[in-house]
Specification:
This is RING-type E3 ubiquitin transferase. Helices cover 24% and strands 26% of the residues. The protein has 230 residues and is of the alpha+beta class.
Amino acid sequence: MDQEIENTRTDCWLEKIEDPEMELGCTKLVMEIEATITYPARYSEEEEDGDDEDYSDINQILAQDSNSYEDTLELNFLMDDNNGTAPTRFMMEQISSKLFDLNVPFRDHESIADKILNDVFAVARDPSRKADGKILCMRAVIHAFGEELGDEDMDIDPKFVPASKSALEKLERAIVVQVSTMCSVCREELVAGSEATRMPCLHLYHESCIVEWLGKSKYCPLCRYSMPSD
């Protein structure tokens, strides 16, 4: 019987609601995030030593090699014109950026961000909590299943594997909204309000910098997100 491994599990809960010292004009989220990443382990030939034992139980072939990380996310809620509380792209990007800091696999960012925002907005919409203009202090605990690079990936030197031309053409443009954002290629500042080029992993760069970089390496300079190659 095949066994499936759940990649992620995210639990969120409200710890308290605080009154701000000064009027905020919006509801603010302060969330403590703890992420535990568990990585698989493969048996080497020496470890197996020719043993024909059936490792059908996934718990027998996966080592409990886990690393935990913790950080704080601060986020202002962005409401739409219809007074809805649907997650916006900006908030998704902010959460994804924090998940990168916590070493959460990129493939799980969207589902985790959806879970976090849905739970946060459920709290904010609850009239009994009267959270408008307050500070929501919440906590999220994430359990993610990481992926180790295979032997072929480990043998590849990224500088000899450029991204495909079609992948470069699909790069998006974005307006820099955060101050002190730096292009990790040239190490110079991306000026707030200016246009930058955004990779699928949401990291921003000067267009000329990232195009030149991806012409040599398909990997994001910051997180090693892999772009398609020919």
